Amino acid sequence: MHDTPDIADRRDAVCVIGAGASGLATIKNLREHGFAVDCYERETSVGGAWNWRHDRSPVYANTHLISSRPLTEFPDFPMPDSWPDYPHHSQVLSYLERYAKHFGLGEHIWFGTEVVSAVPVGDGRWDVTTRSTGGGSSRVQRYAAVIAANGHNWSPAKPDIPGANSQEAWKGQIIHSAQFKDPAQLRNRKVLVIGGGNTGCDIAVEAAQQATTVWHSTRRGYWYAPKYVLGRPADQVNDRLLKWRLPLKLRQWLYRRTLALTTGDLTRYGLPAPDHRPYESHPIVNSQLPYYLGHGRIKAVPDVLRFAEGRAELADGRRIDPDLVITATGYAPRFEFLAPELIGTEESGRPDLHLHAFARKHPTLAVVGLLQPDAGLLPLAHWQSVAVARWLQLRREDPVRAAAVQQKESARPVSSWSRRQVVATRRHWFEVDHIAYLKSVGELLREMEPAT
Amino acid sequence: MSDLLRFEDWTSPVPPVEREVLSRLVEGEDEQPPLLFVPGPSMGAWAFAEHWLTHAAGRGFPAHALTPRADGDLRAHVHDVVQTAASLPRQTVLIGHGAGALVVSHALARYPARAAVLVAPAVDRWATLGAGLKTNPFGTLRGRPRLNRKQLFSAGVDAEAYLSRLVFPRRLTASKEAPRPVGSPPVLVVGSPDDRVVPRKSLDRVATRYGGAPLLFPGMAHALMLDTGWQEPIDAILDWLTKELHAGS
Ligand SMILES: Cc1cc2nc3c(=O)[nH]c(=O)nc-3n(C[C@H](O)[C@H](O)[C@H](O)COP(=O)(O)OP(=O)(O)OC[C@H]3O[C@@H](n4cnc5c(N)ncnc54)[C@H](O)[C@@H]3O)c2cc1C
Ligand SMILES: NC(=O)c1ccc[n+]([C@@H]2O[C@H](COP(=O)([O-])OP(=O)(O)OC[C@H]3O[C@@H](n4cnc5c(N)ncnc54)[C@H](OP(=O)(O)O)[C@@H]3O)[C@@H](O)[C@H]2O)c1
């Protein structure tokens, strides 16, 4: 390996990719640990997914949090306690903007700049190529570490339904939920929503108030949790059970009981019964879906097999005639700037990282925010970035101890931090139980405590 | 561990209240970080509005003071301090006085302050109890302790008006010592060897915990910010702060 003269050496500086919630926390926590940071953000402002002005933002006009405020805010910068239990997406954006301003993060961010590649050059260092988003010339700089906080909810995963895009089979319009922004898009149309994640459920509810007809297609039964239980946000009640350390079996029983008493039996509306136990799929939190099912405004239908002869053919043989189909089938992680093997990408496209964060073979490469928790993401992203900062610090200051920590961590059973017992679809690749996950990160932090 | 798992905050958040914050802003306010003064629950923001807020603003620091909520426990007071700090435009310097310094020392574990100052910190429960018993046994032994004139003010202070504004809530107690601050802010301890609420030994102990020695102002009573010599300690605090802010950048 030899140096090319036009590579600017940024020495001990760390490169952070993305200035969404995860990237912002990473900049702040690296700075607190004494690192110089260059963050690259391809959009022109902070906020990532929550900045709905960004083309790739997955949020729509009426998005509200599904995790309640105390379980969503950063642990060292609370949201205003005068805000509602479930703030609107514009409040989340203003919160992230205030966080960035409060900690003076803007001066470390290069906006309108995309990272197009990050390549290891030996002894842990990285050559990072950036390009301004509008095109233009690229630039290579050398960093001591690369932390990707590029988000995993912006690249639409689209189902391949035969006939969907053929004018002969069907004349309607098909869009992915990422292109759904405004309820007006649904007005006076016959809408079929495909996908039973939180997006699909939200859009079905929205359509129930705007469209003439609404079908909601799900390929399995789910546990639909209400936003409130016993007058409190449902996640706060759930954490009470976790605080009492009730065993999973008992929590599953309580979950069934609670849903039976609140949401009730949804199979009467034609939804399939869940094919898995509670806590084995990403939580769906929606109080309004059962309401509109009960009012006949949403019709539950099974999988769509194909489009043919101007109609959509369903798995139960029925044929329906929507003129707008919205596929709310989720998002796929994308790391185009990294060679797949750097993050242990499996055949399916799923990266394999320690704690979903640390590259197993590259100690100076980490990902922050690649999680699907059963609570807000921000607290987890915060502690991940603290762990990353302490790890880089330890590696710099005490390589011998760092090696020992690495050894110990590699022996940690995956089942201690990753939720294994889940429906085996892409949606659950990064599913974690927030308590178990935070415990594991806490243990890692303790191992890296400065020796006193 | 409890650092990461915050069941109490997740399952029973502190109920919000209207908070009184008095502010003295600075024109074109961007040079210096904001200061947030936190009195003990016997006093209110008024105690700082008397001299220190205006003086600090005069030296270029946007200055704010928070009135503690009525009858809150330590957790509620910490919540209010962190909420107020996070509502300010920039990373804030926390300055607590008396039992307010106890609140600040715990708030530091919840919010990465730019710096912190503990003024006459009533942090050691037994030390303050002992000192109180010496000068004011009856006031100290009450469930809602009453500080008296002799403890709070030196002889030259026209204290009547101040005394009439004091309130007497329950004693603030911490079940454990304050956890390590997040973001490793510089911390200064300020006090007086003649304070009859917080003994000298206690000042030394608290300062040692934060890796320094206390800055002392002999002859002053517990309420330094209301004393006739109020200007000397606030100037010393702002000088220290100015030095620390430059050392960091
Ligand atoms: C509809 C919806 C609702 C949600 N509701 C909740 C909720 O209630 N609670 C909750 O906690 N979470 C929720 N989430 C999850 C949400 O994704 C997270 O809260 C959070 O936004 C993730 O932040 P992030 O920084 O990890 O990713 P993002 O917000 O996606 O930010 C990534 C940033 O990286 C930038 N970037 C990516 N690649 C590059 C590159 N190569 N070069 C330069 N910049 C790059 C992007 O432009 C973006 O700004 C929701 C998600 C969706 C889709
Ligand atoms: N705050 C909010 O209000 C809010 C709103 C929306 C989303 N979110 C969050 O945003 C993230 C993304 O949510 P999302 O709902 O967009 O995606 P998601 O959680 O991945 O859900 C995708 C849904 O589509 C189904 N699906 C996937 N591929 C399919 C296919 N080929 N054919 C038929 N069905 C298919 C999935 O079924 P399987 O279950 O079988 O995989 C699942 O029901 C989640 O973390 C979610 O919690 C939050």
UniProtKB/TrEMBL annotation, chain A:
It comes from the Bacteria. Transmembrane segments: none annotated. SUPFAM superfamilies: FAD/NAD(P)-binding domain. It holds the Pfam family FMO-like. Keywords: FAD, Flavoprotein, Monooxygenase, NADP, Oxidoreductase. GO terms for molecular function: flavin adenine dinucleotide binding; N,N-dimethylaniline monooxygenase activity; NADP binding. The keyword Iron-sulfur does not apply. Belongs to the FAD-binding monooxygenase family. Belongs to the FMO family. This is Flavin-binding monooxygenase. It comes from Paractinoplanes tereljensis.
Automatic annotation (TrEMBL), chain B:
It comes from the Bacteria. SUPFAM superfamilies: alpha/beta-Hydrolases (SSF53474). This is Alpha/beta hydrolase. Residues 35-227 form the AB hydrolase-1 domain. It comes from Paractinoplanes tereljensis. Pfam families: Abhydrolase_6. The keyword Hydrolase applies. Keywords: Hydrolase. InterPro entries: AB_hydrolase_1 (IPR000073), AB_hydrolase_fold (IPR029058). The lineage of its organism: Bacteria, Bacillati, Actinomycetota, Actinomycetes, Micromonosporales. GO terms for molecular function: hydrolase activity.
